[in-house]
Amino acid sequence: MTVCGRNLFSAKMRENVAMRFSTLHLLAMIPGLFCMSLGYAQKVTTEYVWPNGAPDARGDAAGDKPTLTFFFPAPSVSNGAAVIVCPGGAYRGLVTDREGDDVARWFNSIGVTGIVLRYRHAHSGAGYRYPTPLLDAQHSLSLIRSRARDLGIDPGKIGVLGFSAGGHLAASLGTHFTPERRSNLDPMKDISCRPDFMILVYPVITMDSALTHAGSRESLLGPHPDKELVDLTSIEKQVTPESPPAFLVTTTDDQAVPVENSVLMYSALRKAGVPVEMHIFQHGDHGFDMGIGKGAVSAWPELCKTWLKNLKMIPQ
């Protein structure tokens, strides 16, 4: 393996590496090698979403304090775009490695700042349900937009990406961004939290009991939500012409979150005249994350990259 013209490994070391590391381990090394090839040590920082304490905090444990982890691309490739990544976990946990940090690093490879949101949920801290996860997401986007220039981010190129229940949160952010949809508890309510694009990967969209993911619905809304709350959090019913352009990915095989969730969102966006692209792969279990080594679904990151180029969020 050669970086900047230097042979890093002897023949014996290469043999040992081949024996000790699986394909996935080697893939995990790529972001670091990418940075080495540029003579760049990746900058990663973490901060609290609410540094002075969340307005609705019910405790003082780590789970009561949502965070943002910033993964910055190398300055030589940075293009000003950013994406907030919302990991899945059925609103009762967070898959922060495969659906969070790894995703942010991949976005760094195409010049985009990746920002992982560890939002509050039913099993974090004292336990949180709707609307707390959305409050964390809304405030996060407003906070990032308010500091965009200092962060090297274009305030008009901040998107959101979510997997599974995180996809529901991302889609909620793409529909619940007007002032009347924001809490008076948020001191940044006057700064827009509308994402400039949204990427939804095997997302939960509806809270209709016939099609939703039951665990996500109960964790977010409780065991017996009223119809008004179900409708408010069924995102296909909240789309407007002002919703941001969207990219959706799912599979027909998904046994956890029915494919109809993505179809409902696609149809709602199309009806509203919002630019939308959807890819439904025939095969692929729920939770395929970036799709590495998982068949046809591995194509989705490059398809998304092309979509972002066509949207003029990243350069051609």
What report would you give on this structure?
- There is one protein chain.
- The protein has 316 residues and is an alpha/beta fold.
- 33% of the residues lie in helices and 16% in strands.
- It has helices at 11-20, 23-37, 97-109, 132-146, 148-151, 165-173, 214-221, 227-232, 260-271, 300-310, and strands at residues 2-3, 6-7, 43-48, 67-72, 82-86, 113-118, 158-163, 198-201, 246-251, 276-281.
- Strand 7, helix 6 and strand 8 form a beta-alpha-beta unit.
Layout: helices, strands, pairs:
Elements: E1 2-3, E2 6-7, H1 11-20, H2 23-37, E3 43-48, E4 67-72, E5 82-86, H3 97-109, E6 113-118, H4 132-146, H5 148-151, E7 158-163, H6 165-173, E8 198-201, H7 214-221, H8 227-232, E9 246-251, H9 260-271, E10 276-281, H10 300-310
Parallel strand pairs: 5-6, 5-7, 7-8, 8-9, 9-10
Antiparallel strand pairs: 1-2, 3-4, 4-6
Helix pairs in contact: 4-6
